[in-house]
């Protein structure tokens, strides 16, 4: 029951964001893209913070998902959303933020719908296929969007010195945050290949066994 309520709350949050983005685009066209973060950023941040509970669910054993892939996916979003986008107002108006939010919410609306029905023992073959298939092309696209958002933010981190700091004595080096982000780009793409492998494995498990029943 708890997991169902959690999935329901996440579904409501991501559905609101997804619907809001579509309605705004249909109403205002390209003008709606630049202020995506200002109109839905708060709800997006709440949903992503709330998703940290999923790591706890796996650790205490009430969710049987694999920990490391889920941990990577959640931390990637947290870092890009809070560290890169939220900290640089100049980045918040870029079109890549709208693209990123669209990909995240499309995946999450499908995933939390599937999870809610699964908690009740209901398995629709089209929804199951969509849940385990849609993420395979869309996840790499979201990684590219994250990488692009990081690249766009680098000049602002360099200009403003955000998060860059000089460590006090006895340390004799400074932390230059743009270098940290550039190293994180490598981690992002290495993690992408690991997660894609896991996505294919999950798809094979759920769609290749012939155990799915329509209800």
Automatic annotation (TrEMBL):
GO molecular function: very-long-chain (3R)-3-hydroxyacyl-CoA dehydratase activity
Stored InterPro entries: Tyr_Pase-like_PTPLA
Subcellular localization: Endoplasmic reticulum membrane; Membrane
Transferase among keywords: no
Reaction(s) this enzyme catalyzes, per UniProt: a very-long-chain (3R)-3-hydroxyacyl-CoA = a very-long-chain (2E)-enoyl-CoA + H2O; (3R)-hydroxyhexadecanoyl-CoA = (2E)-hexadecenoyl-CoA + H2O
General function of this protein: Catalyzes the third of the four reactions of the long-chain fatty acids elongation cycle. This endoplasmic reticulum-bound enzymatic process, allows the addition of two carbons to the chain of long- and very long-chain fatty acids/VLCFAs per cycle. This enzyme catalyzes the dehydration of the 3-hydroxyacyl-CoA intermediate into trans-2,3-enoyl-CoA, within each cycle of fatty acid elongation. Thereby, it participates to the production of VLCFAs of different chain lengths that are involved in multiple biological processes as precursors of membrane lipids and lipid mediators.
Protein name stated in the entry: Very-long-chain (3R)-3-hydroxyacyl-CoA dehydratase
Protein's organism: Calypte anna
Upper classification of the organism: Eukaryota, Metazoa, Chordata, Craniata, Vertebrata
